[in-house]
């Protein structure tokens, strides 16, 4: 009894809204026709019932499929091609007929019609993934739909898990950001010469005032003149990158995408330079495991009106990265120089800051106000030049 109820429940769950309307019409016609003796309504009820029964025959039959979604590559940059293949294999000893296969790709739905799939047979269908916007695109799960031509019944079964394609933001190569570096014997070497450090560079002639502790006596004796050791600075840098996700601070969504690309370019360059890195997006702190993982996170960043703006970014950075030697702020053109300085003053954020203003309508420009250096970035390819000019 219980098993029969389960079967009836499953059948009813597979009935589409159209099928339920036909069932309701059959019941209504049957009740009214029996009550008032209207043969026309009884005939209509019989036809509706027969239609439901015939449509149910299309859902009879069990499927045993294996499906696989292959996407290559699974990580692309905006504008690059990404394609995939859907493979279905029939494990049964009977031919599977009239398969309707549905594959969600992002917000779209790819639908394939497979007239028949032989026993132990296999079919492959190709699809293209749109990559014109930065996003995390879900692909799948694969499902088959069994039903009648009129759509009265719709029996759906899922055959695979969901895959994801990461569309990374466009980035550009940058020179090392050297502003605000802290001298550290265990840090990286720099082009700057130093009279005392741990990284030996060369020998030079003694100049009055040089510390005699750095005189290389053995080389001095060989050459007949005093020679001192010349070093290069070793420094470390803690880079904090801040990105506002409040769309009210941007003139358009394209401007927000430019700010995301600026932030992604700075973070990936910091990883290449093996610098200590802290990444703040809105009021969240993102993990900085490696460049690929960070770009995956950048793919999923979404701006929203009224979201966490620059105020919350600055407060988060001040509380969780107080020892940052370089602070790079990425924001939109609607937040001017005065507004940014007021926001920093309210939070008592006094760290030397590099502000990258994404502004599609402006010309490349830079200026220094107090301890903040502002760079207007109309195009991503101009980012490196603007940074080097303001830091030189």
Topology, element by element:
Elements: H1 2-13, H2 17-36, H3 39-57, E1 65-72, E2 75-77, E3 82-90, E4 96-105, E5 108-117, E6 122-129, E7 135-139, E8 143-147, E9 154-158, E10 163-168, E11 182-194, E12 199-205, H4 217-223, E13 227-236, E14 238-243, H5 253-272, E15 276-281, E16 284-286, H6 291-299, H7 310-320, E17 326-332, H8 337-346, E18 353-358, E19 365-369, E20 372-377, H9 383-391
Parallel strand pairs: 2-10, 14-15, 14-17, 17-18, 18-20
Antiparallel strand pairs: 1-3, 3-6, 4-5, 4-8, 7-10, 8-9, 11-13, 12-13, 15-16, 19-20
Helix pairs in contact: 2-3, 5-6
Order of SSEs, N→C? HHHEEEEEEEEEEEEHEEHEEHHEHEEEH
User: Structural class, from helix and strand content?
Assistant: alpha/beta
Task: Going across the biggest sheet, name each strand in turn.
Answer: 16-15-14-17-18-20-19
Shape: elongated
Q: Count of helices? A: 9
Residue share in helix: 25-40%
Query: What portion of the residues fall into strands of 2 or more residues?
Result: 35-45%
User: What is the average of the pLDDT values?
Assistant: 82
Tell me about the largest β-sheet: 7 strands, mixed
Outline of the structure:
With 392 residues, this protein is of the alpha/beta class. It has nine helices and 20 strands.
How would you describe this structure to a colleague?
The longest helix is centred in the N-terminal third of the chain and has 20 residues. The protein contains 9 helices and 20 strands. Helix content is 30%, strand content 35%. Helix 2 runs antiparallel to helix 3 and helix 5 runs antiparallel to helix 6. Strand 4 and strand 5 form a beta hairpin. By secondary structure, it is an alpha/beta fold. Strands 16-15-14-17-18-20-19 form a 7-stranded mixed β-sheet, with helices on both faces. Strands 5-4-8-9 form a 4-stranded antiparallel β-sheet, with no helix packed on it. A 3-stranded antiparallel β-sheet has the order 1-3-6, with no helix packed on it. It is elongated, with a radius of gyration of 34 Å. About 6% of the residues have low confidence.
């Amino acid at each position: 009894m219980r098993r029969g109820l389960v079967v009836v429940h499953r059948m009813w769950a597979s009935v589409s809204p159209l099928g339920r309307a036909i069932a309701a019409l059959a019941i209504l016609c049957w009740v009214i026709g029996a009550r008032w003796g209207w043969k026309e309504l009884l005939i209509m009820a019989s036809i509706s019932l027969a239609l439901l029964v015939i449509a149910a025959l299309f859902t009879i039959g069990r499927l045993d499929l294996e499906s696989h979604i292959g996407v290559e590559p699974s990580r692309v940059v905006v504008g690059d091609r990404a394609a995939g293949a859907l493979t279905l294999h029939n494990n049964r000893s009977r031919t599977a007929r009239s398969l309707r296969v549905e594959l969600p790709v992002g917000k779209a739905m790819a639908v394939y019609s497979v007239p028949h799939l032989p026993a132990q047979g296999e079919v492959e269908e190709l699809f293209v993934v749109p990559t014109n916007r930065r996003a995390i695109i879900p692909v799948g799960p694969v499902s088959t739909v069994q039903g009648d031509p009129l759509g009265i019944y719709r029996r759906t079964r899922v055959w695979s898990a969901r895959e994801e394609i990461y569309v990374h933001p466009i980035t550009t190569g940058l020179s090392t950001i050297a502003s605000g570096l802290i001298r550290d014997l265990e840090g990286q070497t720099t082009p700057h010469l130093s009279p005392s450090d741990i990284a030996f560079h060369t020998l030079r002639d003694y100049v009055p005032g040089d510390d005699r502790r750095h005189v290389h006596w053995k080389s001095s004796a060989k050459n007949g003149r005093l020679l001192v050791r010349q070093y290069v600075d070793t420094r470390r840098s803690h880079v904090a990158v801040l990105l506002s996700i409040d769309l009210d601070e941007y003139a358009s969504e394209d401007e927000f995408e430019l700010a995301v690309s600026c932030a992604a370019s700075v973070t990936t360059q910091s990883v290449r330079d093996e610098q200590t890195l802290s990444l703040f997006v809105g009021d969240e702190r993102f993990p900085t495991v490696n460049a690929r993982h960070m770009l995956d996170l950048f793919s999923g960043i979404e701006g929203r009106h009224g979201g966490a703006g620059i105020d919350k970014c600055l407060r988060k950075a001040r509380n969780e990265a107080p020892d940052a030697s370089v602070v790079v702020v990425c924001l939109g053109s609607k937040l001017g120089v005065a507004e940014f300085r007021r926001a920093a003053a309210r939070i008592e954020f006094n760290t030397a800051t590099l502000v990258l203003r994404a502004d599609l309508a402006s010309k490349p420009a830079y200026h220094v106000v107090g301890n903040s250096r502002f760079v207007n970035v109309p195009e991503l390819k101009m980012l490196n030049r603007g940074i080097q000019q303001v830091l030189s």
